[in-house]
Design brief:
5-stranded parallel sheet; Rossmann fold; 3-stranded mixed sheet; 4 domains; alpha/beta; 8 strands
């Protein structure tokens, strides 16, 4: 990832690799699976050596993900050490297909070390059923404890989970600040961070990925645990501002909470406090981010026993589901599509033109997510959205360079804005004066 790339290209290569980690990770597991099949067929020593190297390369990344976890990876390496090619192939296929399909998000059986050991070697991932599963995320814990205790922390996290929780999560544990930042860069499933006061300020080896961010973050050692916590929390906020951050401290937390910089931390706990309190706070933080005001309101609207009169033929789906001719349409789309059928004149769903209720709340949440002052939802499709963006960005006479193969709504937007459009066609360039008063077309003024 670093040796073959010139130093001047390093930042771009590393950032691109970090952003593409899910795809690159899946590709690496498919490579392991391919080598496992070859090894099972040939039992060649060079193939086994290639597998050893491939697993060693994967280990550097897999420690920042909850799945497959230490138990499954130990079992996989155990089959390799025992020269059991068939067992290795079975488990490698199970792990790789589970990662690609993200089955571990919705099936707790995927985490079982003993389950499915004798499954068919070429079985496809199971189809997603219609049973509602709880959304999945991962929690990063940055701890001062030795790696020997990390398994106990993971078991403690699993022990406070409850069937009535709206979400389900697994713990990813690291022991120092650089590893914490690497984890939030590489793992998009991380939804919250728990900092245990006293974690290490430095990792055991250099991390070229973090060198790219040295101009915006500072996690250099300070010798003060409180300052180190604040610096790491600030760095996390700069890289992934959406994450909730919680601190476990055994000091005078009233004094710590009084520091202005500590406000970036969502909540501070005594380390001796009940783990359930931390669990409930994490779930509540995710629940707030998971809210979808308009969609939630639309679901409540669909459950109301009301009649709508603006589209009688499909109102509540009655004429569709009882029809001799189009009942299959109802079966295809399902009842919710018709139960949620509404219009802008229907009460309780807010106004599309001047929202003041749930649509306004949803727009405010979108604005915060994008770091914008305001956000406005468009209901007329992508073409209208493109035209609105171009007219907001352009003034008459502005010069715009567009790919001639892009969607035609971009060209229409330039026409409406009165911009000068330059398109590339092979080796020639065509400069087009696109004025709203003189639209292009075969019967209009020629470009």
């Amino acid at each position: 990832m670093t040796d073959s790339v010139p130093s001047k290209e390093m930042p771009h290569s590393l950032i691109s690799s970090a952003l593409a980690t899910p795809a690159l990770r899946a590709d690496r597991w498919l490579s392991v699976l391919s080598l496992a099949r070859t090894w099972a067929d040939s039992h060649k020593d060079e193939t086994k050596a290639a597998l050893v190297k491939a697993l060693a390369d994967l280990k550097a990344v897999e420690r920042f993900f909850a799945y497959p976890g230490v138990a499954l990876l130990d079992r996989l390496n155990g089959w390799l050490d025992d020269d059991d090619a068939r067992a290795f192939l079975r488990l490698a296929q199970r792990i790789s297909t589970t990662i690609i399909s993200k089955k571990y998000h919705r099936d707790v059986g995927a985490w079982n070390v003993e389950e499915l050991e004798d499954e068919p070697l070429n079985r496809l991932p199971q189809a997603i059923t219609h049973v509602k599963s709880r959304p999945y995320f991962e929690v990063l814990s940055v701890v001062p404890h030795s790696p020997a205790r990390w398994r106990l922390i993971q078991e403690e996290v699993a022990g406070v989970r409850r069937p009535e929780d709206d979400f389900i999560y697994q713990a990813v544990i690291v022991g120092n600040a650089p590893d914490a930042l690497t984890a939030i860069l590489l793992n998009p499933d991380i939804g919250a961070v728990v900092l245990y006061e006293g974690f290490a300020a430095e990792g055991g080896e250099t991390n070229p990925l973090l060198d790219v961010f040295r101009n915006i973050i500072d996690i250099s050692p300070t010798g003060d645990d409180e300052v180190q916590v604040i610096r790491l929390a600030q760095a996390i906020r700069k890289i992934r501002p959406e994450l909730d951050i919680y601190l476990l401290s055994d000091r005078n937390i009233e004094t710590l909470a009084g520091r202005p910089e500590i406000r970036i931390i969502n909540r501070i706990f005594y380390q001796m406090e009940e783990p359930l309190e931390l669990h409930l706070s994490i779930i509540e933080g995710i629940r707030k981010r998971y809210r979808t005001p308009f969609f939630d309101n639309l679901k409540r609207y669909a459950q109301r026993p009301i009649a709508t009169f603006h589209a009688l033929p499909i109102a509540r789906g009655k004429s569709v589901f009882t029809s001799n001719w189009i009942s299959d349409m109802g079966e295809f789309y399902g009842p919710n599509l018709f139960l949620a059928e509404s219009s802008a004149t229907t009460g309780g769903l807010d106004s599309l033109l001047e929202p003041t209720g749930n649509i306004k709340e949803a727009q405010d949440m979108a604005a915060r997510a994008f770091g914008a002052d305001h956000a406005f939802f468009v209901t007329n499709g992508t073409s209208t959205s493109n035209k609105m963006v171009l007219q907001a960005l352009l003034a008459p006479g502005d010069i715009v360079i567009l790919d001639r193969n892009c969607h035609k709504s971009h060209h229409y937007g330039c026409v409406l804005a009165g911009a000068q459009l330059t398109m590339s066609r092979h080796s020639r360039s065509l400069s087009i004066q696109c004025m709203a008063a003189y639209p292009c077309g075969p019967s209009k003024r020629p470009c």
